[in-house]
Design brief:
Among the domains are: 32 residues; 72 residues, Sandwich (Immunoglobulin-like). The chain contains one helix and 42 strands. Strands 39-38-10-42-41-40 form a six-stranded mixed beta sheet, with no helix packed on it. Strand 19 and strand 20 form a beta hairpin. The longest helix is centred in the first third of the chain and has 26 residues. The N and C termini lie far apart (71 Å).
């Protein structure tokens, strides 16, 4: 080979090196060519973590990666800025899809995903049940069976002892609610228009009528003393332990665990002791009081909500004023980490971040069926009833909001291993945050789900 040819080859290799090397370096550093905009851009990534393990995770329909016990996450790099589709699948589980934005030189995180079974298992607890309630300890279960002349109560799970029973003479009685004391030893039962005190603190179950509470409103236990019931009657706040009214001219009240919060007929919020001693005015402006309007006060964490008819207001701690919140909000519930509040309107699910009032009310979507019975599943998911369905929803509102409805027809395992199918019709539900199980009463059949998440 002639010298000139060798020099030309060497020059070509050098030129190729000078051209290709920067390209490889830029590629390794995460830069890509955006042909649409004719520019070089830096890339980002997506980090995904999901439970249970064994899930198939893919980004933009690329080959999926399976999570394991030792590697429960997937990290995909060198993604061009823009929107990218995340897909998470596992056999027998409801699939999860979300479109996420990727920014230059940033990692977008999706690390709180829970996959839920398509058909979770349910165990039959009891048949021919007309009412049930679970106490705050989430271990005490009260059931009731309505007969022609009596209501047969059974209390199970307390101290793991034998169930306690009580037969209450109540012609055509209908149980409309049970309000428990904080220690789960007592409950206020509302049967038709009458009130009864259920006491499970002794060796025997007792249920006593409370005629003094006739026409009383907003009845609740003192959170520090289960022997005391508060209630409003004739626009005064009363205690079952006191002959005279505790506080006069009261339209609504709530308890924050250590104090009472009272909305007075004079249009101000007050803080008071459980003995009825007013020790602070919480608002500095008069709130317009409307006659013949129902009021309800809720204390959720450190946040105070006042419902005036179909309108809801919240206490602005900085200005000490009641400000409009959102329409007819209800079902306020505090997240386990005490950082978020979830609530419902007539057709929409929301949550708010307590420490970030500027974030406002974050919508998680609308539902055509009436919503009720809202709980936090964990810090990142909520569970509620919508019509005849039970739905679990994430609170990550980026892009689409993923929901996981429980089946409309569930399979129950009976004693002895036999199974039965039952369709959900006007179910009553309770979610146990402690063991992540749903108690469900439908068609007079009471069942409990398996643990719904790891």
């Amino acid at each position: 080979m002639k010298l000139k040819t060798r020099l030309l080859i060497l020059a070509g290799c050098a030129a190729a090196f000078l051209v290709i090397t920067p390209v490889l370096v830029f590629y390794a550093l995460g830069y890509r060519v955006d042909f649409d905009n004719r520019e070089i851009v830096s890339t980002g990534g997506i980090y995904v973590k999901a439970v249970p393990t064994g899930a198939e995770i893919s980004i933009d329909a690329r080959p999926s990666e399976r999570t394991t016990y030792f590697n429960p996450s997937v990290f995909v790099q060198n993604l061009a800025p823009g929107m990218h589709a995340v897909s998470i699948k596992k056999d027998a589980y409801i699939s999860y899809q979300k479109t996420l934005a990727v920014e230059k030189n940033e990692v977008t995180k999706l690390e709180d995903v829970v996959l839920f079974k398509e058909k979770p298992a349910f165990t039959l607890l009891r048949e021919n049940v007309d009412y049930f309630s679970v106490a705050p300890d989430q271990a005490t279960l009260l059931t009731a069976v309505l007969t022609k002349n009596t209501i047969e109560f059974e209390l199970a799970g307390q101290n793991n002892g034998a169930p306690k029973t009580y037969s209450l003479a109540a012609l055509n009685g209908k149980i409309t609610g049970a309000t428990w004391s904080a220690d789960s030893k007592k409950a206020l039962l509302t049967i038709s228009t009458n009130h009864f005190l259920l006491d499970a603190s002794g060796t025997q179950l007792s249920i006593t009528p409370l005629p003094a509470l006739k026409l009383a409103k907003q009845i609740s236990f003192n959170p520090q003393n289960n022997a005391e019931l508060f209630y409003i009657k004739d626009n005064n706040l009363h205690s079952m332990l006191a002959a005279a009214a505790l506080i006069k001219n009261v339209l609504a009240y709530g308890a924050d665990g250590n104090n009472l919060v009272v909305f007075s007929g004079d249009g101000f919020l007050y803080q008071a002791t459980f003995a009825g001693v007013t020790n602070a005015k919480m608002t500095i402006e008069t709130f317009t009081v409307k006659k013949n309007t129902a009021y309800k006060l809720s204390v959720v964490g450190a946040v105070v909500f006042l419902q005036q008819g179909e309108n809801t207001f919240s206490l602005d701690a900085a200005t000490k004023t009641l400000v409009p919140f959102i329409g007819s909000a209800h079902g306020f519930t505090l997240s386990p980490d005490r950082e978020k509040i979830a609530f419902l309107t007539s057709d929409e699910l929301f949550y708010s971040i307590i420490a970030e009032p500027s974030a406002g009310k974050i919508s998680l979507g609308t539902v055509t069926a009436a919503m009720s019975d809202l709980w936090w599943f964990n810090n990142d998911y909520v569970i509620f009833k919508a019509g005849d369905r039970v739905i679990i929803s994430e609170i990550d509102a980026r892009g689409n909001v993923n929901v996981a409805p429980l089946p409309a027809t569930i399979s129950l395992q009976k004693t002895g291993g036999t199974a039965m199918e039952i369709e959900l019709e006007h179910p009553s539900i309770f979610f146990s945050e402690r063991d992540k199980k749903v108690y469900l009463l439908t068609q007079r059949t009471l069942a409990v789900s398996e643990k719904l998440a790891p």
